[in-house]
Structure formats: structure tokens, C-alpha cells
Design goal:
Elements: E1 2-6, H1 11-22, E2 26-31, E3 50-54, E4 69-72, H2 79-84, H3 86-93, H4 95-107, E5 110-116, H5 143-160, E6 167-172, E7 175-176, H6 187-196, E8 201-204, E9 210-212, E10 214-215, H7 216-228, E11 234-237, E12 242-244, H8 245-256, E13 262-265, H9 280-286, H10 294-307
Parallel strand pairs: 1-2, 1-4, 2-3, 4-5, 5-6, 6-11, 7-10, 8-13
Antiparallel strand pairs: 9-12
The protein binds nicotinamide-adenine-dinucleotide (NAD) and uridine-5'-diphosphate.
Length: about 325
Amino acid sequence: MRILLTGAAGFVGSHLADRLVADGHIVVGVDNLSTGRLSNLAQLARSASFELVEADASEPLAIGGPLDWVMHFASPASPIQYAKDPIGTLRANAEGTRHLLELARDRGAAFFLASTSEVYGDPLEHPQSESYWGNVNPIGPRSMYNEGKRYAETMTTAFHAMLSAPVRISRIFNTYGARMERDDGRVVSNFIVQALSDRPMTIYGDGSQTRSFQYVDDLVEGVVRMMAADFSSPVNLGNPVEHSMLELARMVSTLVGSQSGIEYQPLPTEDPTRRRPDISLARELLGWEPMVQLEQGLRRTIDAFRSEGEWPTHA
Ligand code: NAD
Ligand code: UDP
């Protein structure tokens, strides 16, 4: 198949591009390199099955040739990145999703949306299943991202009937692995960088808030299985094993073997208190569940960060 993939130079997009090319597909990556980097795609540089178009996915794209899938993964994804560019984040998810759905409609292609567990906001239901509508502040500090993704889901659902090919909506929970940006403020990359450079690990709040971390290879497998399934409503893709940030800090510190202490910092406003996916639907529909345990995935990620060498003086 020939697949258009936005956000291809990012953390998740580059791993997905690797997998799609390895599976024998042709991938046309689109990225404006705002939070991604070309080095994430170095392994594909000589592949005849991959090309990168540097463009803004919020604008209509002039991509020639047939397309079987349009996959929309372009969006700032970490709290500091989307807070830095609120309008760009809204545009990538609102205008970008609309233009890409129109492209899919015009080419007879299927459409895949990378949505997020953030659509559940600070959830009042735990764990979160796809039937939960969420607890989201439309003008809160995360609203450019979570409302942008909610709108993207709505737009995708509204277009569904107008497309000749199917749509897919994945609600992705916190994902980690090699190629995460070291300084985009996400907790896994922050803790690894801090531990590797023997600086205090910054815990926001008292560290009792929870997340459920999924290794990137598990996510990619889930995405590929969703493409092959026959289901157009949202599907959670995440690891249901939940940890507090204090537990995560201790685990990273032990795995790195660092002397880093802990430095408590203020909890950002409206930071979700807990998050864990109910993946019953993905299990039933895709026969999928995460295979990589947190300790194993962290070891791989720490090794990847180590092999990249020098450390920044901030995290
Ligand atoms: P990332 O920042 O590493 O990758 C995003 C990529 O999109 C970058 O390469 C960036 O340059 C590109 N991009 C951003 N805006 C663009 C635009 N307007 N036009 C073209 N390219 C643009 O983030 P990621 O973690 O790889 O996230 C990828 C997707 O997965 C996002 O849609 C994100 O919302 C979703 N997601 C990620 C996670 C996670 O834990 N990593 C969780 C939920 C959802
Ligand atoms: N966090 C933390 N220390 C850090 C970075 C983040 O304690 O150095 C916390 C953050 O407040 C949140 C959790 O870790 O409660 C996950 O943050 P991240 O930005 O990785 O993901 P998200 O909040 O988008 O789920």
C-alpha cells in the first residue's frame, strides 16, 4: 500500500514509518520538523519505500499519486510543546484533520487518527473505557491539545459516512521509548536524562499521580492491527499497568544506577490525577495487548539515550 503519514519525523511517527516500510508498504512522510527531527528517519534515508515531504499538515497538501491510507500523527504532544504553540496545536488537529480527511475522501483512501487518552481529561471514571466521555475543561491549560483531539475525533466521525474507505481512531495512552525528545518535558525522558546526568529527579506535586506507560513497539503493533480490523469507533491503545510518578522515579533511578535524589516541584494546574486504559475492546477486537513490561521497556529506552551520548545541562 502507499501510505501518507503525517508527523513521520516524530517519536511515534518514525517508529511507525519503520514498521510500515518493513511490512512492505510505501510511506510518504509529512512533517514540518517543529518537534520532530530528521535524525529519527536516518535509518530510512536510503530506502526506496520512504520519502519525506517537509510541509505543514494544517494546510492542504499537494501530494500526487494514489493513496491507500492517510494517517494523521502530526501534532505537538507534550504539555510544554503544546503550551508553547496553542494555535498551531489546535490547527494541526482541527484544520489538519479536516484537510487530511478531504484528501482521503478525494483519493478513496482510509483515514487513521492518532487521538489521545487526554480526551478523557482528568477522568472521573477509572480505568477509562472508550464509552467514557471525559472530564475536560474547554479553556484549561491543556485545552488546545485535548479539545483539539476531541474535535479531530468528531470531525473524523462526521466524515466517516462521506468516505468510500474506513476510518480508525486510536486513543493512545502515555507512550515511551527511543527517540523521545530529551527536553520536551515528558516524565520518562526527564527522569532518564536527570538520572543519567546525576541531577535530582523532578517530581511535580507529591508524586502520587499515576500514569500507565506503554512501550512504543506495543503501540505500533496496536496501530497496525487496527488498520487491519473493521471498526471505526475509538479504540484505547495503552498499557493497563498503572504507576505513580514516585514509583517511576525510583525505578528509573535503580535501572540507571544513579545517585539522583528527588526534587519536588509544584504540580502544574489541572494535571490529571490518574490514568489507566481499559483495553478490553482492543483485546477483543485486535487480539492485542502490550507485551513489553515497564522495566524491560525502560532498560531499552535508557540504553538508547545512553548511546546518544552527551547530556544537556537542563531537563
Ligand atoms: P512528537 O512531537 O515526537 O511527534 C509529532 C511530529 O509531528 C513531529 O515530528 C512534529 O515535527 C510534527 N508536527 C507537529 N505539527 C505539525 C504540523 N502542523 N505539520 C507537520 N508536522 C507537524 O510527538 P509523538 O509523541 O510522536 O506524538 C505523535 C502523535 O501521537 C501525536 O498526534 C500525539 O498527539 C499522539 N499521541 C502521542 C502520545 C505519546 O505518549 N507519545 C500519547 C497520545 C497521543
Ligand atoms: N511529571 C513529573 N516530573 C517531570 C515531568 C512530569 O512529575 O519532570 C509528571 C506530570 O506532572 C504528570 C506525569 O508526570 O503528572 C506525566 O507527565 P507527562 O508530561 O509525561 O504526560 P501527561 O501529563 O501528558 O500524561
